[in-house]
Automatic annotation (TrEMBL):
Transmembrane spans: none
Originating organism: Belnapia rosea
Biological process per Gene Ontology, one example term: proteolysis
Pfam families referenced in this protein's UniProt entry, alphabetically: Peptidase_M19
Record PANTHER family: DIPEPTIDASE, MICROSOMAL DIPEPTIDASE
Protein known as: Membrane dipeptidase
GO-annotated molecular function: metallodipeptidase activity
Domain of life: Bacteria
Length: 326
């Protein structure tokens, strides 16, 4: 079974060497020990000033991170993969796979050529927003420190609609994690390839603004898309006042169960958001990956379903994104 974690952050600007066991929740020794075959490392850019200088700095950071992520792989025991076929060949060869993506369309600014440039560097998706509105879209979590109103664009901006077309043309997936519900539903309607929420949870089980509700789950299914339950404790269950959140792999399995019952196993997956806030009891780092598989197996998910949850569904939507005729 190919185990793919589709959302793992890296430290920047001083990332540790992933070849050595280190302070991060994901490095190559932990992946090897836990049987985590592949990860998508994220070129994350926090939301900042929406002016020419801010956009230029964000673009420079994102592209430096993409180049760094590509350079993490040695081409033999750790390979950088840019297509599903390359990923599957890497797995068949017994090597660990490194992939990349960009988080926050702020890095795009108003440059509609950016998706093609990022794709050339190997990126497979763009998360349209992070916390705080940007020029593409409203965010699920407006930021008062940035002067955000509850909504700014009414979902996607005209530029955001153009950005989705540019992502489709470049063969990059549209990631709607962090995106306001209005924008997510609009993206589902506009995108010519299936959209994906790479790190989220079910609001039906815990009403957190970063989760997605049943109407959104239904919209994902309608377009052949994918929701991936992630290991961020605050998304999975309430935090007792004055205490740490006790979320575990069982809570993740609860959210997987809900999504599967609602839209079918073919539209559900899992991810960690390690080193970006993710880590639950039983899955604290890549070395503990078998614990999540075991929790899902206890719920009755067999080899076929586990394969879909861990990578099969993501590979399907990624292949569809790559075959869209720009």
């Amino acid at each position: 079974m190919l185990t793919l974690d589709t959302h793992v952050d890296i430290r920047w600007p001083d990332p540790p060497d992933p070849l050595a066991e280190g302070p991060m929740r994901v490095d190559f020794p932990k992946m090897q020990r836990g049987g985590l075959n592949a990860v998508i490392f994220i070129a994350y850019v926090g939301q900042g000033r929406r002016d020419a200088a801010g956009h230029a700095a964000a673009a420079e950071r994102a592209e430096a991170m993409l180049r760094h992520i590509r350079g993490r792989a040695d081409g033999e025991s750790h390979r950088f993969c840019t297509t599903p076929d390359e990923l599957e060949a890497c797995h068949a060869a017994g090597a660990l796979a490194v992939l990349s993506a960009v988080e926050n369309g702020y890095a795009m600014g108003h440059d509609l050529s950016a998706p093609a440039r990022w794709r050339a560097l190997g990126a497979c998706y763009l998360t349209l927003t992070h916390d705080g509105h940007n020029d593409l879209s409203d965010s699920a979590r407006p930021q008062a420190r940035l002067g955000d109103r509850a909504a700014e664009h009414g979902g996607l901006s005209p530029l955001g609609r153009q950005a989705i077309a540019a992502l489709n043309a470049a063969g990059m997936l549209v990631d709607v994690s962090h995106v306001a519900k209005s924008a997510m539903l609009q993206a589902a309607e506009l995108s010519r390839s299936p959209i994906v929420a790479t790190h989220t949870a079910c609001r039906a089980l815990h009403d957190h603004p970063r989760g997605i509700d049943d109407e959104q789950l239904d919209a994902l299914k309608a377009v052949g898309g994918l929701t991936q339950i992630t290991a961020v404790p605050a998304f999975l269950r309430p935090t007792p006042e004055g205490q740490r959140n006790p979320a575990s792999v069982e809570d993740m399995a609860d959210h997987v169960d809900h999504a599967v019952r609602r839209i079918g196993v073919e539209h559900v997956g899992v991810s960690s958001d390690f080193d970006g806030g993710g880590a639950v009891e039983g899955w604290q780092n890549a070395a503990e990956t078998p614990n999540l598989t075991a929790a899902l197996a206890r719920r009755g998910y067999g080899p076929r379903e586990l394969g879909l949850l861990w990578s099969g569904n993501f590979l399907r939507v990624w292949r569809q994104a790559l075959t869209i005729d720009g």
